[in-house]
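To make this tangible, we now present a fold written out as tokens:
***
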Amino acid sequence: MKINNINNPSFLPGSKKNIEPKDGKRNEVSDSIQISSEARELLSQDRISKLNEIKEKLNQNFYSRKEVIEKTAEAILKELKSE
């Protein structure tokens, strides 16, 4: 088996690729995210839909039902116990 380029200077400490620039500034790379206008529109539509669903449930007194209140209270209690 033959291994090529084991002594490649670009992998060695002090090689030109590892030397800091003379001005002392390093090129920093940061992550970024871009959301297209189409995706923003879909998000807006989804959010409006969800708000309309909540409004409808409020009008139907969904959140006043005993089982919903008990489930909410259990979730709050669980959260308080985990802290």
Observations:
- The radius of gyration is 29 Å.
- The chain has a mean pLDDT of 79.
- The helical segments are 37-59, 66-82.
